[in-house]
Amino acid sequence: MKENHRYYTSDAGYRIDMTNKQKELEKQAIERCYDEQGGKSEEAYMDLLYPDEHYEYLVNGAMLKCDKTIPDIKVLRGKVYNVKSPMEETRLNVTENTKATDCQRPHATIFDCEIKKNIPPFHCNCSIPPYNDEEWEKLESDSQYMEKGTCGALMKLNWKWDNLPAKTSYMSFSDNKFGERTGIMMTSMLFCKHGGIITPVTSGQDIMTVRFTTTGATLIMDDKINPQGIPLYSGKTMDGKCTYFSLENYDAAKYANVAISRDKARMEGGWYKYIHPMAKQVENLPESFNENYHGSFSSNGNEFSLADNRIEIACRWGISTCDGEAYNYTLAGKYLDIVLSDGTVLACIMGASKGNEPGSDAQGVVHADDSIIEVLALTELDLNVDKYDMLHGCDMVGVYVYSEKRLYDGNTGEYTYYFSESIDD
Length: 425
Prior knowledge:
By secondary structure, the chain is an alpha+beta fold. Helices cover 12% and strands 24% of the residues. Strand 5 (74-76) and strand 6 (79-81) form a beta hairpin.
């Protein structure tokens, strides 16, 4: 592997050597992509062929990490920075490159590196303390950083991403505002001037792999209708046995009212013991756990769970058992299609079937907070999903409840994630 030394200087004046990180990313790319039967050496492959590997390019939804994030509590000048449910990954947001949608998601370019707009600060602490009075003032002026992490105050990104040096040009993608711009790949790096190196974890191309369903319904990728690229389809997604539950007479299903809220059970534990690759506190994953089922989408500054390319939700027993199935933990993994008033369909999967909570209706449909469904939150930020992200102005008119479950490993006879016990609350 060739030596390509790259250095940056942090705002504190420290020289940051990115060479080892570059070698690490290159090695990982070779393990993923290189085929020795192609007749070229590893070095020649990276120089000449790797820049043409389209599936390695980052798109909207790619997950990123920084080598300076830590989940630990930090005490700085007597203040305790204790991040609840710290997340050492953040989501790359690409919204302006809508012309660059070869894989039905906007491609990222070397200039997609604006804080918040493209890269939300990590919900985590930074291992490097503030360098100067300006950083201390920013950190101490807002108490939110004590719960959301010091990264939010200290992140300061370089003006562009860096690609590995190569003899072949990298692909370019059309930016709506600036024209053709060079794309970024799984081997790209972004320098944070506070001293960190940000690198990709996933390309984002695998978030939504189901484009067409067995019924012929297609995934809707119109940014005006589906701004977050969630599993929204043109019609019913499955042919299997199902029961239709009408929501026509429920005011809580109307767009103008509260229709969607969040379920914090993932963090709180109790009845619910969800297993998810982003839920770091869960230990002893069962052998049948399949991470390929799981992902997330971002809305309103929060991350919410996807499972098997469907939105993971909690709904009440009146909907989940309308087909006659018994109310117990085996409802996990049950498929639902939520039909909207314009005919589009939200593909969902059961994360929890909820019982008779105080304040909920007697029919087992509306939650105590007047919502019909709850999405599964992956962070403790006190925000719900933005209604427009999921409903694009439409009412929920009904639910197809399928008898079939897909979060199941036929080799072991086990579900791919579990509950601690019955979830009758």
